[in-house]
Design a protein that fits this description.
This protein is α/β, with parallel strands linked by helices and 261 residues long. The chain has 2 domains: 160 residues, Molybdenum Cofactor Biosythetic Enzyme, Chain A (3-Layer(aba) Sandwich), CATH 3.40.980.10; 78 residues, Alpha-Beta Plaits, CATH 3.30.70. The protein is built from 9 helices and 12 strands. The protein has a 6-stranded mixed β-sheet with strand order 2-1-3-8-7-6, with helices on both faces. Strands 10-11-9-12 form a 4-stranded antiparallel β-sheet, covered by helices on one side. A two-stranded antiparallel ribbon has the order 4-5. The radius of gyration is 22 Å and the shape is elongated.
Length: 261
């Protein structure tokens, strides 16, 4: 599957996505991931359904296995981590192997880094960041210039959050069409979740195209609050579900309220 870099247009077909977080430091707990939530929120607003995410180590065979699986199952795959200048940054070379492409220096990536740092400062380490699969399309990086890349339907980005964020902005702006708009509201109700459950179950059965999620938390020793998230693309069904959930919550708590998610 290939995608052009022309300005994206809105697509009414539902697109799916998977996220692969690559890095031993994530699995050991040395670094807390700050990328998945950022990607998920922006995908939702872009009309792309995030279906699955996973964290894997910097192991070639594991990266190849998971990338091929995700690439087959989802419209778009986003990876973070492992494209820096050090010896343990193996993601780019591994992507070439996963898609059976030569691992070569990308001329445009080379020119970008030379312009940024100059020939005298163009070290072998920086040269590693210009190496990628032969048919890679660059993902631009306004933060440090070193680009990510797309190979087939896999978008390979840095693991450092502020660099990944700027790369992902370019991906959404230039490389992925918008999907159908999705709507989301949160209804908040002071009640024990088990009291809401039968009514929510009934509403969900009547409107299977709308997602209803229930998230309880304790306000104090005696008071529970439930946040009911309603998500969907079909505006008429969405509005009907919102009305019914609000009415259900008001039957238990007259101070229940509804806010955009």
């Amino acid at each position: 599957m290939s995608h052009t870099s022309s300005q994206p247009v809105t697509s009414q077909k539902r697109s799916t996505a998977g996220i692969i977080l690559i890095g031993n430091e994530l699995l050991s707990g040395q670094i807390a991931d700050l990328n998945m939530n950022h990607i998920a929120k922006k995908l939702f607003r872009h009309g792309v359904d995030l279906m699955e995410t996973t964290v894997i180590p910097d192991l070639e065979n594991e990266i190849i296995r998971v990338v091929r699986d995700y690439s087959h199952r989802f419209s778009y795959v986003f990876t973070t981590g492992g494209i820096g200048p050090t010896h343990d940054d193996i993601t780019a070379e591994t992507m070439a192997k996963a898609f059976e492409q030569p691992y070569v220096q990308h001329q445009q990536a080379y020119e970008i880094l030379c312009a940024r740092y100059g020939d005298k400062n163009f070290s072998d380490s920086r040269g590693r960041m210009t190496m990628m699969p032969k048919d890679a399309e660059l993902i631009y990086n306004d933060a440090t210039a070193a680009p990510g890349f797309r190979v087939e339907n896999v978008y390979v980005m840095a693991g450092i959050p502020y660099i990944m964020h700027t790369m992902f902005d370019h991906v959404l702006k230039d490389m992925i069409p918008r999907g159908a708009q999705r709507h989301k509201v949160i209804v908040t109700c002071k009640v024990i979740e088990s009291l809401l459950a039968p009514g929510l179950h009934k509403i969900q059965d009547a409107f299977p195209s709308i997602e209803i999620g229930s998230y309880p938390h304790r306000l104090d020793a005696k008071t529970w609050e439930v946040r009911v998230a309603i998500t969907g693309s079909h505006i008429e069904d969405f509005n009907k579900v919102k009305e019914q959930v609000v009415a259900l919550c008001l039957s238990f708590d007259q101070e229940s309220h509804c806010a955009n998610g």
